[in-house]
Amino acid sequence: MKTSCSMILADKRHRITLTTTGRIMLAVVSLFLLASCSSERQAIKLSGSTMGTGWSVKYWSDETLPDKMQVQQSIQSQLNSYEQMMSTYRADSDITQFNHSNSVEWQQVPAELAEVTSAALEISALTDGAYDITVEPLVELWGFGPVETNGKKPSVEEIDLALRKVGYRKLSVNQNLSQLRKSNADLSIDLSSIAKGYAVDRVAQQLNALGIPNYMLEVGGELITMGRSHRGNAWRIAIEKPVDGMQSVQLVISPDNMGVATSGDYRNYFEDDAGMRFSHTIDPITGLPVKNRMASVTVIMPSVMLADGYATALMALGPDKAMELAEKNRIAAYFIIRNGKELHTEATSAFAKYIHGEEQ
User: Fold this and answer.
1) Taking residues 81-87, what's their average pLDDT?
2) Strands (E), the chain
3) Which pTM does this prediction carry?
């Protein structure tokens, strides 16, 4: 059958997405050339909303694959179920019900919620509590949760009170029985630093089951690439330069069938009357917004859920401890670090193979 080739279209699109806690994700740059040289293959882009943010997927479709509306509905339905389980913005979600419960007995939760909580606790243990999903009372206190505080800095007394409700060791999980238990009745959890990555992993499994071999999928900026891009070679993803008020590319990477997550300090913050900036990343030890020189961290791992959690954890640890932990555990991580008004970068040895081209 004779086919005609359309002109090559260069589509360079930057997408910056804030999650419900304002974590900075990737500036996802779709650096692909669409060469429509077949009447049977079509480039498909689907998108929707979930967990207070957005999702999108790009893939090739042909007559052997399900209709795009079927794919859209399948993805949205799956994401809706995770939102029902893990969104602190929903009053009827499973996580909200657990947070509002005063029980210190084992409580039944969905298996997915237990799985994500278990992974989060492992990261907490590895980082000596620098990463802690029980920090939710402090997140709300500083105005980075569902309740707005209009930039009001909490008092020392308020911080001390919230700290009494925080501590990952006060939370237990029985993944086999899908149960959670808190030893402090006031304990509450926030999975926003890891739930979107988990959603990407599970939706990717669904795309694979539908027979879609080549795609780029992202939820709130957390993403995974599989197969080849529309150009026929590796997908390319851009890491955003952490500069206020502008969008520019710091580095282009090729993840090669891996998950990618980025956390940063420069989009979601507030300033007090004196002009002091307070970032959304909260130190669970001091109860204060993290103050270190880390501007952003990008992590590449097979599991987007773990990349998501470790990006936050390394961000909280600061440059020196983050590099030490990442190298020790062979984590592919890329750090953008503030040095006064200047920025410099560091990367672990495991990250080097993903770099595509020179830094900007």
Assistant:
1) 97
2) 9-11, 14-15, 28-29, 32-34, 42-50, 53-61, 107-108, 171-174, 179-182, 215-219, 222-226, 237-240, 249-253, 259-264, 269-271, 277-279, 294-301, 332-339, 342-347
3) 0.84
